Amino acid sequence: MDMIFIELQKDSNIPLYQQIYNQIKQDMIDRKFPVGMKLPSKRQLEEFLGVSQTTIEMAYDQLTAEGFIASEPRKGYFVQALEELAYVQPVKLETLSETPVTKPVHYDFSPSSIDTENFPFIMWRKYARDIMDASHAHLLLLGDPHGDIELRQEIARYLYHSRGVDCTPEQIIVGSGTEQLLPLIIRILGKWARYAIEDPGYLMTKHVFSENYRKTIPIAVDHEGLDVKALQRSDASIAYVTPSHQFPTGTVLSAARRTALLNWAASNPDFFIIEDDYDSEFRYRGRPIPSLQGMDKGENVIYLSTFTKSLMPSIRIAYMVLPPILLDTYRQAFIPYSSSVPRIDQHILARFMADGQFSRHLNRMRKIYRRKMHTLTNLLKSYEPSISFSGDEAGMHILLHVHTNRTEKELIDEALQSGIKVRGLDTYKVMPDQSPPSFLIGFGGLTEDDIKLAIPRLLNVWNIKKTAVPE
User: Fold this and answer.
1) Calpha distance 429→437 (Å, rounded)
2) pLDDT tens-place string over residues 199-251
3) What is the average pLDDT value for the chain, to the nearest integer?
4) Which residues contact 335 (CB under 8 A, 6 or more apart)?
5) Residue 311's Cα: distance from chain center in Å?
6) 3-state DSSP assignment of residue 407
7) Measured between alpha carbons, how far is residue 171 from residues 9, 309, 353 in Å?
8) Percent of the chain clearing pLDDT 90 (strictly above)
9) Listed residue (425, 50, 125) closest to 247, CA to CA
10) What is d(CA 387, CA 379) in angstroms, rounded to the nearest whole number?
């Protein structure tokens, strides 16, 4: 049968299985599906929508339980006659209320933005032009499901020299984003795995674990990073961490805690660490922080990273390095899968890296981001002690702490009314506390002139006065 159209909103609070259930049910009520029509198989719909098979099963099970569809063994799922059902109330889709914006946003301190003005368009276009000709016609066919070897070789070489990651190209799996790779990791680690997550931490990660029905255990983060003692007291078997530049606090996991975390993972053959090294390329003080994977002697670290920050978010290329002990399990679990990244994009990037252009681009961007960071922190110092900041050693955002009796939400709303968008730290917390209002101030997507205009304007809106002249 033809595939049915289902539009998923993956950033919605409505679970994905419920969105699928709602849309199929509504289409049946609207008589878009004839009685007896066969629905796509769970595997077909899973691959088409890019969600887990468990998500499809839950939607189909609910529709079956309510009598909208019926399952026939070894044949599939078929649409049933609505006349045989009790009164069917049309689906009322939930809508999420958003904070009304009465004025346009002039300055957005998004931590996910990058500098687009300094992207090497000329060189990227050259490699794209070289790849797009008849001599590379084989790239129109499906390639290695783990990613083409040319790209994996370049990634392995880059990781060894820049991050101390010790791996072979065979250990690398290329995918279209961390949110696509994480479900694969979740599947090979088994249904009984229990995941410790940083609190505060990356919202997408918690969402992925929840969508795959895995237990998550929030572990507090302080000035030394993840509280490893709290992890040891928990019943977690997997620890998801961002040790080189914790998101969103910017904290670097201390040497003592790195050792303790690796010892925890080595204490049980079922324990693993998922190391998300999302923006380690951009460090502005001291030596680069070594990766946990490079320090690991027991092969208990799964390394994750992406080209989102170093190149562009839209390229949708991420990768993971699996320890050898998990490689066979991965191969057996995903034999029929194809790579989710277009081969042409893989080969453009591989050429870009092989010719040294990627290293040159990173060196240039480090200097640009370092200047932006200096401009930002120099401005903020003139408002101390009414404010303070942290996380300024690496990455593309800092954490701004405002010492006031007002709430985080009040300050966010005031900034938005003035055309400035900021994100509060409470958004990233599982367990909110009574700490002072704190905000992620991303500078990657702003020019230095933007920063010089936006910071005084923001702090003026919050009625915070200068106490010193900037350097």
Assistant:
1) 13
2) 999 888 888 998 888 889 999 999 999 999 999 999 999 999 999 989 999 89
3) 88
4) none
5) 15
6) coil
7) 32, 23, 19
8) 59
9) 425
10) 11
Answer for the pair 196, 219: CB distance below 8 angstroms, yes or no.
yes
C-alpha closest to that of 444 among 325, 278, 234: 278
Long-range contacts of 5-14 (CB under 8 A, 24+ apart): 6/45, 6/49, 8/49, 8/51, 12/96, 13/94, 13/96, 14/93, 14/94
Looking only at the bridges linking them, the beta strands covering 107-108 and 301-306 are unpaired
The DSSP call for residue 461 is: H
| CA gap 36, 48 in Å, rounded | 22
> CA-CA distance, 39 to 77, in Å (whole number)?
6
- Measuring CA to CA, how many Å separate 414 from each of 104, 181, 406? 13, 38, 11
Give which of 211, 214, 183 is closest to 19, Cα–Cα: 211
Candidates 81, 87, 54; CA nearest to 68 is: 81
Residue 108: count of CB within 10 angstroms of its CB: 17
Closest by CA position to 228, among listed 252, 196, 192: 196
Q: Bridge partners of 197?
A: 218, 240
Please give the full DSSP string across 107-123, using - where no structure is assigned: EE--TT----TT--HHH
Three-state DSSP class for 444?
coil
Type of residue numbered 90: P
Whole-number Å distance between alpha carbons of 442 and 115: 11
Distance (Å, rounded) from C-alpha 264 to C-alpha 272? 9
Question: What are the C-alpha distances in Å from 300 to residues 72, 121, 206, 229, 316?
Answer: 43, 39, 21, 18, 26
- Kindly write down the DSSP assignment for every residue of 349-397, as one continuous string: HHHHHHTTHHHHHHHHHHHHHHHHHHHHHHHHHTTTTTEEEE--SBSSE
Contacts of 203 (CB under 8 A, 6+ apart): 427, 428
pLDDT band at 84 (very low <50, low <70, confident <90, very high): low
In this prediction, residue 102 carries a pLDDT of 52
DSSP 3: P
**CA-CA distance, 355 to 357, in Å (whole number)?**
6
For residue 332, count other CB atoms closer than 10 A to its CB: 9
CA dist 201 and 429 (Å) reads 7
- How far is 42 from 17, CA to CA, in rounded Å? 12
Residues 6+ apart with CB under 8 A from 223: 251
Candidate from 56-70, 133-147, 151-165, 208-222 with smallest mean pLDDT: 56-70
Rg (CA), the chain: 24
